[in-house]
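User: Here's a protein and a ligand (zinc ion). What would the complex look like?
Assistant: Let me lay out the input and then the predicted complex.
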Amino acid sequence: MRISHIALYDCASHRHVRMGAVAAFLRETFGIPAVSRTSPYVDRRDAHACRVRNMFRPPERWGEGDAGDSPLYDGYMLADLLGGMLSHDEGAFHVLFVDDMIGTYDPADMRYHGRALISANPCIVSVRGMCEAPARPRDYCIDVMACAASGGDAQEVESRHGGRFLTYDDPRMQEVAHGYVMQAVFHFETGEAFCTDAGCRLYNSHWQSDVIHTQVMSPRLCGRHQDALRRMAAGAA
Ligand SMILES: [Zn+2]
């Protein structure tokens, strides 16, 4: 493997995404050590400069008139900023967990999209993005809108659809976090982002139902990626 060890930074401090469990998962899966390191200190102004100033333009086309008060951070700008603060020892792969929403500009439909993962080195996993970036079920969204329009009981809608998507305080976040880090490690090692097999843990889930299926209900790799993992683990030994 190109990676000899993994450094984890817990900038999110989420109670259901524990670094000890992430480290144990990475050791068991890839056979390489993972350790927690102190999170980098980020100056507020530097962080603010990474905020998306226009949802419909890439950073190089942001202008004076663009507001800059979006809660979304440009994932690659944030990765550059945070990456500059880490000590890059040979063979290290850095994983930062953040609480903020991160996004990337997609030239295909000319707008930003929220992401749970920025797959680079350092890689960034947004715990809020795990809940909010993959879409919730269509019928849930329709029920929420109908409820708001009729002044109905919003809590009743939430409990009726409970468990079908991740919520911020969801204990399933731990397993889902493991899957996102696994995707980033595979991407870095193989150069291939994601898998087209909807049953594989490396599948790029756009829906919450796919996230829950591939990471919690049936967390497995497809045959091709099981082979790739065996080759990687043999190389790590
Ligand atoms: Zn696969």
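Summary: The chain has one domain: 5-236.
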